[in-house]
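Q: Fold this one first, please.
A: Sequence and structure below.
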Amino acid sequence: MSAPTVRANLARVLSGTLHGIEGRRVRVEVDVASSLPGFSLVGLPSAALRESRERVGAALRNAGFRWPEGRITVSLAPADLRKDGAAMDLAIAVALLLASGQIPRPRGDVLRRTLFVGELALDGALRPARGTLALALDAASLGVDRMVVPACEAHELRDVDDVTLLPVGHLRDLGRGLASAAGCVAGARGPDDPPQPPDPRRVARALLEVRGQARARRALLIAAAGGHGLVLQGPPGCGKTMLARRLASLLPDLDRDTARICRRVRSSCGLPADADRRPPLRAPHHTVSAVGLIGGGRPVRAGEITLAHGGVLLLDEIVEFGSERLERLREPMTDGRIELVRAGERVGLPARFQLVATANPCPCGWAGSHLERCRCPVHVVERYRRRLSGPLRDRIDLWIEMDREPADALFDEEPLDSWVDRVERVRSVRRTSDRERARSEGDPSPEDIRADDEARSFAAAVADHRGLSVRALVHAMRVARTIARLDGVDCVRRRDLAEAFTYRPAP
């Protein structure tokens, strides 16, 4: 049975929208009827999409086309899927031009296999659109093998496989782009060489900028090597934030799959999505909203924990974030994913981040310091520290108490080469840990951690004496395994566990 013939005043083209960070195909249908002039846009469009009439109309006129006369109906199917953003401007413009006969219809199945994505400027130029890369990565599942995209975004999509890109800079070039689409065959592209990780000597030199603080720097290396959560607590000016910001530079490059997820997330948030395999570092201010931190809204968008996927989430002055926002970190820290459920919408987002945080010990900042006297009453200090709940503290592997170093520590010199070796060792151990986590689809269980009999007996005795939860004991075992691997040993020893227990947060 032959396909139904499309009337001359009716056109259908394909575009896309985002559901979380995943692409969804949208069929843009335009009907131009011989009736009184009017314009209707149906199919659950967002406010930005409803404004497309003004953008598209001005773009058509300034590109040398005309606005079709008659009753115009634009339908975005499926009708029950919410559409957001301005990425469908180009598709609406193309459908209008086809329905009004201002550009010729391409032969064959070009329109059924081509996705049109782009925002229109008033002069007819194509602008970058939020989610273009995410749609390109999902092209195969969307049933397309060609994409017409803004020319200014082509460099971000150059390593996407199995989809042919047709960059267009202006609506005037659209006819030539459709003509070339008929002869295009999709093919795979090899990825460009990613940038190299920061030079170990430069990373080591940055670590040595924080003078003294040997214990804190040791904890930073352990956290980077094993992907452990870390809190640095101490008075103002002791180097907490400087050390925390250097954690991401210690990490090795992301693997290709994780890097693509990170690029997809950035694209869905309207951020640059270049082919960069460096782990992201996100450092939101403590005034960030719960939706900005966790994600949400309508339609659902990714938050800071998803933007930090595969990298580091830095919460500077963590107690100032407030318990309402911090408590929502508990499930993502454990699961590496967050499920956001809203009325009629359920979106799953990746959120496997490494938490590093800084905190003052009290409101004045000097509790426990040997150099200054704390002026806060005892009950004020206790209330300040209780802003971090027990369950959240239990999920943090490394908790370091810092203090200001004496002035003569500023003149201490440490050999750079020894720290270069440590940085390279950290990256090697982290790559091993990440491969094992990927194979087991999560953190290792206690049965996966090799430990001698003396170490196991010691761990059980300490856990009983300190009243540690099972989760706290498992986290301590994981830290001990990282310590052993940094020493070149794969079996956990008693001394590794003894050091790991010193990093557990105080109850």
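Q: Good. Now the second chain.
A: Here it is, same layout.
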Amino acid sequence: MFPDWKRWLEFTRKAAWALLLFSLPITSFPHFPGFMGLSTAVVRPLALYPLILLILLEILPSFLRRDPLPAGAGPLIAFCVAALASTAFSLVTPAFPLAGQTPLSRSLRGYLTLGMGVAFLMAAWRMSVRENSFRFAARWLLAGGFIAMLWGGLQAFRLLMGWPGYEQMNSFQRLISVRDMQLLRVNGLAFEPSWHADYLVVLIIPLLLAALATGEHPFGGERSGRWVTGGLSVLAVVNLLFTYSRGGIVVGFGVTIFLSLLELVRRRNEVKIMRSSEKAGDPHQLGRRERFLRTLIVLLVVALAVVGVSYLLSKNYYFGILVTRLNRIGNLQNYLISIGSGPRLALWQAAWGVFMDNPYLGVGLGQSGFWMWDHLPLWTFNYQSEIMETFAFSSMGYPNPKNVWVRLLAETGILGTTLFLLFVLLVVLLALRAYWQKDRRSRFLGLFGILSMAAIVVEGFSLDSFANPTLWLTSGILLGSLSMPGNAKREARQDD
């Protein structure tokens, strides 16, 4: 009887982990019980349900067993302590209520969102250690991504062809989101297009690029896996382009360039080894002419892709003004205002002002919005009616910095931000160490981690929620898969 119970428990853990990864694209699920306090929250991932199950079945038992924490846990624990202390200290002299929010309610919400993020990290870490295989996580991430991109592709088809009808598609969208489907942009299964783009450039595209670069395909063998990965990559690019998310597309392009630079450095080292082998009479090395032709073909394909994408985006007003307003680039502030980035710029500057007034510990989690009004730049009052509406007495919209790094500075100060960046740096170093290994599986995981963490750092300049799972999952997966000695070898034996 006991072995059957253990087998059922293990199956439940594995199913919950798979469901968590599969459901990540659904960011604002409307069906949560009232006692969870999510009725006013925008970030409401469906993955919370399997996360709760993993907390009960895996995270809490691991604490009771006093299992060792991952290698990068020290800075993260110190950051959480600093953030909690800063938030508690801010309640000694609280701010005035704003937009129906009180300092106490925002503090509790800040604790909740940070705890939710850390719980996602802990679940990813524990299940990665337990599974001993990144391929399992990669497959379920891509399975969920395929459903989201398929739905996003249908939305893109509607934009181009006018079919299916908006009402029919939106009726399904409202089953899984608190917000209507976008009329002129693709938002997949997410709350808005920029969130769908964030999901793609932080998780899906780095995973696909790593598979293409290393030849370690999550689905199928060498040949069939290449076709599956290539097809998913095309679908991901289509989805990303039709989100018309300027930040997401720039990050996606930047991640691809970053991958090219990494591979160039690696291949340069390999070429040196090849030349030394050629001198020794090794007949299996590629000739210079074949390498030149391959490079030329790749450059030609990239050039054609850039031309095609540029033409497509130029037809969209949202992107077109990036070029038509270039005559104002001499004054960067005026240029950003003219292309519609004024509200975001104003909030960044206001949050920076909050940080400058409280540089060491910040004002506490969730508290920055109470202090931003006094730090809004003067030009905001002339140009940005959206900001004025946010801060109006009758408004129910609570202001946010719209930038996780400025928010960290404003709410946790230099101390908290330094600790969090140290944690990020440790994760990146683990990924780099894996990338420079000789075996393909380690390089696959390491390259995914490097590209994903790079995207997270850049995407943080346009997103500001600690409850966003994509911010934590990559770190948890890497810590679980890379911080345990010999994981790569065990994974190879398990998959073989």
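Q: Anything worth noting on the second one?
A: Residues 485-496 have pLDDT under 50 and may be disordered.
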